Amino acid sequence: MKPSSISIVPLFALATFYLQGTTDALLHHSKYKASPSDDVITGRYIVEFANQEAANPFVHSLSTSFEHDVKIHEQFKHDLFHGLSFNLHDPNPSLVTASSYDEKLQELFDHEHVTAVYPIRAIQRPELTAIPVTNQNENIAQTILPHQLTQVDRVHKELKNTGKGIVVGIIDSGVDYKHPALGGGFGKGYKVRYGEDLVGDKYDSNQPNPIVRPGPTPLDNCGAASGASGHGTHVSGIVAGSSANFTGVAPDATLGMWRVFGCTGSTGNDIIIKALLKAYDAGSDIISLSLGDNSGWSEGPDTIVASRIAKKGVPVVIAAGNAGQSGAFTVGSPSTGEGVISVASFDNAHNLVYKFKATGFSDAIAYASSQSGKFPSGDIVAGDKAVGGTKDACDPSTIPATVKGNYGLVKRGSCTFSIKSANLAKAGAIGVVVYDNAGGDAFTPSAPDAKVPVMGIAQKDGEALLAAIKKGKVSLTFDGKLSPVPLASAKTVSSFSSVGASYELDLRPNIGAPGGDIYSTLPRYLGSWGMMSGTSMATPYLSGSIALYLKSAKGKNKKGTYIMEEFQNYAYKAPVQNGEKAIDSPLRQGAGLIQVYDTIQQNVHITPGQFSFNDTSSNQYKTQTFTITNHGSKTVSYQISNNVSLSVVPYDLATSGYTYIQPINYTTAAAKLRISKKSIKVAPGKSVKVKVSVIPPHTDVKQHIMYGGYVQLKSSNKKNGLDLSIPYFGVVGRQKDLPIFDQDFPYLSSNSNGTVAYEKNETFVLNRSKKAEAYIITRLLSGTALLQGDVVDVKSHKVIGKAFPDQTYLARNTLNPTEQAQSIPWDGSYYKSGNKPIPVPKGTYEITVRALHIFGNPKKQADFDTWTSGHIRVTN
Ligand SMILES: *[C@@H]1O[C@H](CO)[C@@H](O)[C@H](O)[C@H]1NC(C)=O
Ligand SMILES: *[C@@H]1O[C@H](CO)[C@@H](O)[C@H](O)[C@H]1NC(C)=O
Ligand SMILES: *[C@@H]1O[C@H](CO)[C@@H](O)[C@H](O)[C@H]1NC(C)=O
Ligand SMILES: *[C@@H]1O[C@H](CO)[C@@H](O)[C@H](O)[C@H]1NC(C)=O
Ligand SMILES: *[C@@H]1O[C@H](CO)[C@@H](O)[C@H](O)[C@H]1NC(C)=O
Ligand SMILES: *[C@@H]1O[C@H](CO)[C@@H](O)[C@H](O)[C@H]1NC(C)=O
Ligand SMILES: *[C@@H]1O[C@H](CO)[C@@H](O)[C@H](O)[C@H]1NC(C)=O
């Protein structure tokens, strides 16, 4: 045994994968769709039926079989989803024995009308911190609104279109509809007209017995002390908020809010399904979801329901995710669902910052903080004996006594802002000023539990302050007022915005909208107004824009896919950085930033709105065809060309194999396109078809470069029609060749956090009477659709059964501390289909773990990564 040899970062906080106990039969059922690890909630399931008639008999059997041990949570009686969710408690031994329990479940799920069984998964709430804005005034609001970036200002002004009467259904944390900018009330005659509270304040799907207390209205009245972020209120304001100094995207749209989060904590995918169906039934013209995970697959039941609604023609707009810093393939589900619209975030043109004055400095210094208010004046001193080093204020013993009663200045890095601020507060500091360590501007340090103000400033300001305090006394004074400053990253993709594609190589995100540094409403208990950043903000922005589109003459009776194409056709393609020529990849920006006025006013349409040339394993996807249709009254003509973007380099092949680069790297390698018609003319009412074939760049196939660009249609007369473009991407290499297991993984460990690694030639002794377990520590470089484990008897070389239930549709691991690996416990039992765990006879065993490659065939052994453990001697 040796300390684990993980070369990247030590493992910790590994999530345990599966449950044990009374529901194993279910987990082994062929209809069971297992799914990723740590967010599965044990003992709770969603069952789907072929038709509604199956529901009552099923409920009846379930109740007679399990009496008090079963609780039915949600019943879905809908053409788009027949089913229910339930949870099982531990069996009451006086009623049933554990084994009959298993058999009963088995029988229930065997029934032909049951089409699928899914685990209930926790959907984490988007963890966004609001920055309260207390000095709201016209100047701030006008500068900070992003409507000029998206042409929404022109739609309001020139087209007099404010989305009146279009219904946007939002699924979120509730809304403070008593806020004056959100109408001040609920129901008929009010802006927030539809919806309800599906869960209540105390709901958190991760609790063992979640408290569900539905309410008639979706009011978020959590109160500041609850820790609620006001997410749903911020989202609502972006769509349709309206006041003297603030204008949402569609200020006269009607809102529905289906509240799926309690004041804190996560929700379940069964609640999301319920909310989706309710929003659909209420007649929402658009459904908007600022939530999701980082999984990149599209097979979960909530994703399936979202896709079915989209198929009915209702645009379903979903956040791409905020995991862009973790590299490629971080777009989350349900935004990966077929036909739904996955939204990337672009940065706003301005941010709001606070400023303090420092003696000796002519210009006030900008800072950001999640705490607001006028901080007390005071002197600033070094916050570490070796200030400016790499570990400032990470260790209490290096904090000078002089910080007492003063502000402490420290450099960012090595430990969290919470640790720095706690150490300084303990030493008596009245506040903490952290300066950036990577050349960045003022930033918001996240230290939710800080007892003193914590501020983030630019590195250059921090260094200037440091030089000044070395010379003499420096005092700070605060006015607590926010003022707008221009952002260098305006109109480019936000750094946090998740990167595509989906694991199945669909182009995601589809399109972008402003989501970085967005000003909107907050619940009154949080001060009514504030800033937030996230694809959570970009999503309602697009939903509001679709409301404007639907309100226009052009939008009548248009379906979701058509609408998405319209927005894609006329989007703004952002450079990778302002001032640079190179265009950012469609895997970051989709078609680009929405241009709402053009989308509404232009008369030419291209379908499809995007291409995936897939990988280079076959020629099937190499040629794509688009159709351009002129709905206007004048002939339009175009030159068609290939406008390449930067390519995404997903892996750091040279130093770490197929570990993803976090964040992605770029390269200029570009594809060539063979276009069947270089110039076209389209008469009014006519369509033209054009074929596009790709010649991928000649990069090393092992690198799996993700190239991309835009098929550009340059209009020869802008008066008759503007330019259009179609985003495309593809991968050089075969995704099927990508390894799933990282080097040195899996391995056996004697503890669940994987800190002790057994070598292949070491025998692991598993003493069952000590209730010991072996842990299989896995780290997935790439997502996998299937992970299986077999128990092999060393003597006979025979597989005696499964070591753990099949896991399906797992997301990849990252380099982030809590996402590096996971552990699968093995307690010395095996499973046969439909049986409860059977203890293996005393003896020596090996465990074989297999993970299916992307696009692999589960029937082909060669399509799996396979690992076999060393010997495990099972005693007692
Ligand atoms: C709007 O801004 C003005 C100052 O520009 C301020 O007097 C007024 O109170 C603001 N309105 C609201 C509703 O906050
Ligand atoms: C890419 O190709 C694979 C088969 O190699 C296929 O399963 C997948 O659906 C394709 N993706 C798209 C978006 O066409
Ligand atoms: C490519 O797109 C960029 C950004 O929209 C544009 O500035 C440039 O002119 C385009 N190039 C061609 C060849 O159309
Ligand atoms: C990312 O790209 C830059 C510039 O091409 C290069 O210097 C750097 O080594 C790359 N990083 C990785 C991890 O490949
Ligand atoms: C790892 O697990 C062992 C035993 O299960 C425990 O003693 C140890 O504190 C854990 N270490 C970490 C870093 O969590
Ligand atoms: C197992 O193999 C390693 C080298 O691969 C060796 O260093 C070690 O001594 C071996 N351990 C045993 C118990 O044989
Ligand atoms: C297993 O553990 C039990 C209880 O601690 C102990 O009595 C027994 O000797 C152990 N067996 C072996 C083979 O180590």
Structure write-up:
- Helix 7 (231-240) runs parallel beside helix 12 and helix 8 runs parallel beside helix 9.
- The radius of gyration is 28 Å and the shape is globular.
- It contains 16 helices and 49 strands.
- The strands form 12 sheets. A 7-stranded parallel beta sheet has the order 9-12-8-14-15-16-24, sandwiched between helices. Strands 18-17-23-19-20-21-22 form a 7-stranded mixed beta sheet, sandwiched between helices.
- The longest helix has 17 residues, at 535-551.
- It has 876 residues and is of the alpha+beta class.
- The two termini are 22 Å apart.
- It has 5 domains: 2-12 and 738-875, Sandwich (Immunoglobulin-like), CATH 2.60.40.4070; 31-124, 2-Layer Sandwich (Alpha-Beta Plaits), CATH 3.30.70; 131-348 and 490-601, Rossmann fold (3-Layer(aba) Sandwich); 351-485, 3-Layer(bba) Sandwich (Glucose Oxidase, domain 1); 603-736, Sandwich (Immunoglobulin-like).
- A hairpin with a 7-residue loop joins strand 25 (518-521) and strand 26 (529-532).
- One 2-acetamido-2-deoxy-beta-D-glucopyranose (NAG) is lined by residues 136-138, 243-245.
End-to-end CA span: 22 Å
Uncertain spans = 5-25, 91-97
Please bin the fraction of helical residues. 10-25%
Number of strands: 49
Major beta sheet summary:
7 strands, parallel
> In percent, how much strand structure appears in the residues?
25-35%
Q: Within the CATH hierarchy, at the fold level, what is the topology of the largest domain?
A: Rossmann fold
In CATH, the homologous superfamily of the largest domain goes by the name: Peptidase S8/S53 domain
By CATH, the architecture of the largest domain is named 3-Layer(aba) Sandwich
On the 0-100 scale, what is the average pLDDT? 90
Form type = globular
Order of strands in the sheet with the most strands? 9-12-8-14-15-16-24
What's the alpha carbon Rg, rounded to whole Å?
28 Å
Q: How many domains in all?
A: 5
Specify the CATH class of the largest domain.
Alpha Beta
* Ligands: 2-acetamido-2-deoxy-beta-D-glucopyranose
* Total of DSSP H or I helical runs spanning 4+ residues: 16
